[in-house]
Design brief:
Helices cover 8% and strands 42% of the residues. The chain has 453 residues and is mainly beta. It has 2 domains: 4-51, no CATH class; 91-452, 6 Propeller (Neuraminidase), CATH 2.120.10.30. Strands 1-25-24-23-22 form a 5-stranded mixed β-sheet, with no helix packed on it. It has a 5-stranded antiparallel β-sheet with strand order 5-6-7-8-9, with no helix packed on it. The chain is globular, with a radius of gyration of 28 Å.
Length: 453
């Protein structure tokens, strides 16, 4: 019979011991029971949030534009009339322009008092009318400089800049004479500039450049003016009616192009640092496919990243309508140098992309249950949730943050009681779910240029 005293001692592994369980073993057994239960409870809570809580609607409203419908989502009805801010804003004046016939007039309106003064009037080359011609249906061609001290505008004579302090005007591009025949171009002060007309000026964030659209016989091209040297630059690799998007830092720009849109350049192009006239297409950094459809794109606050939506046409089903195409876009992010490409969401219907003020999240609009929703996507956690449900049909043209951290929405608001399109601007405090400001009703030939002190 084996002498038990000669056997080696057992290791401290009581999981496999037939002796009485130790305190350590009891704790492990309890954890094996509790942890799965905790995971199941958390999964159930997540399910409730995704499928039940976000769909609750209390349909409450007030004169301030709406109340939170629950602890998660704010349902809002835009008011019909002007709502003046009840808080002090860093920039309390709205600069806007109205076009009537050929005359565009720029005003400065105090948001709290409603008082306004006229600051500039100029005559454009195209009459404001609903004619089906894209150029005649544009709002005033005017833009406020980043330092809020100058207005770039395009009148019948060319591209000019008006100084709000000195009340002086500098001409950068002058039309030397009108077209001499049907189909002929007018002659401009820069021999390399060929266009039937100039439209939609836009400042770079550092104020060094002004971009503008050049109307061609078919389609349009894009030009730049250096505000210091006065030199004209033709953008050789980007073109199209949508123009370029300036970075919030410096004078970099990007241009997304959707392949099915006539007279649009291809790819997701970012300007080169050494030559503002040249761009780099990021398509090869995103896919092996030579052609991708890019619907829209926007810079991060530091100008280092780009959020965008795109499609690979080789992967799309045949015979899809435009509405069906819009519902199967991929949402992605990439650095401006083409590195760190990531797909955030696949086959989704998202539009009007923009970053949060701190760059940690992405906001976008999405249709759900017949209503448009503002959704927040957190980049760190990759979680997303509805923030606002809109009860109004709104065609957004400008979306940006104020210096106070409030969200500005401007565009064409549909009026159910009328076929007329009206222009509105709203300022929203998303964090506290409060309407800060609602503009008066304007016609569609209105340009909300920006805010100033």
């Amino acid at each position: 019979m084996e002498d038990q005293s000669l056997r080696p001692p057992l290791k401290d592994n009581t999981l496999f011991s037939s002796n009485k369980p130790s305190k350590k073993l009891k704790i492990i057994r309890i954890l094996l029971i509790i942890v799965p239960i905790f995971i199941l409870v958390q999964m159930f809570i997540n399910y409730l949030e995704d499928n039940i809580f976000y769909d609750l609607q209390l349909n409450q409203s007030s004169t301030s534009g709406g109340l939170p419908i629950n602890s998660v989502v704010w349902e809002i009805n835009f008011p019909k009339d002007e709502v003046k801010p009840s808080v002090d804003l860093i920039e309390e004046n709205l600069i806007y322009a109205i076009k009537n016939d050929y005359i565009s007039t720029v005003y400065k309106r105090n948001l709290k008092s409603g008082e306004q003064v006229e600051i500039l009037e100029f005559t454009e080359s195209v009459k404001a009318e609903d004619s089906g011609n894209v150029w005649s249906e544009l709002p005033p061609s005017v833009a406020l400089s980043p330092d809020k001290k100058q207005l770039a505008f395009i009148d019948k004579e060319g591209l000019k800049v008006y100084n709000l302090d000195t009340k002086t005007t500098r001409t950068y591009i002058r039309k030397l004479n009108e077209a001499k025949c049907y189909g002929c171009e007018p002659r401009w002060s820069f021999p390399l500039l060929h266009a039937y007309g100039l439209f939609r000026p836009s400042w770079s964030s550092d104020g060094n450049y002004i971009s503008f659209i050049e109307a061609q016989y078919e389609g349009s091209t894009i030009g730049l003016i250096d505000t210091f040297s006065g030199e004209y630059t033709f953008l050789k690799t980007v073109y199209g009616f949508r123009g370029i998007t300036w970075s919030p830092i410096g004078h970099s720009y990007l241009k997304p192009s959707y392949g099915n849109v006539p007279y649009e350049s291809w790819g997701l192009r970012v300007s080169n640092k050494d030559d503002v006239s040249e761009t780099t297409d990021l398509t090869p950094k995103i896919s092996k496919s030579e052609i991708l459809y890019f619907w829209e794109a926007n810079f991060s606050p530091d100008g280092e990243r780009i959020v965008f939506t795109f499609q690979d046409p080789s992967e799309l089903p045949d015979n899809l309508t435009e509405e069906e195409l819009e519902q199967i876009k991929d949402l992605a992010i990439i650095k401006t140098d083409g590195t760190d490409f990531k797909i955030l969401l696949e086959k989704v219907d998202v539009k009007n992309l923009f970053f949060s003020k701190d760059g940690g999240s992405i906001f976008y609009f999405q249709q759900k249950d017949g209503k448009e929703r503002l959704v927040k996507y957190e980049l760190a956690t990759r979680n997303y949730s509805d923030v606002i449900v809109f009860n109004n049909k709104f065609n957004y043209e400008e979306i940006y943050w104020t210096k106070d951290g409030f969200l500005v929405l401007s565009g064409i608001l549909s009026d159910p009681s009328s076929s007329e399109e009206i222009k509105r601007l709203f300022i929203l405090d998303i964090e506290n779910r409060k309407l800060i400001y609602s503009s008066p009703v304007f016609n569609c030939f209105t340009n909300f240029v920006g805010f100033s002190n």
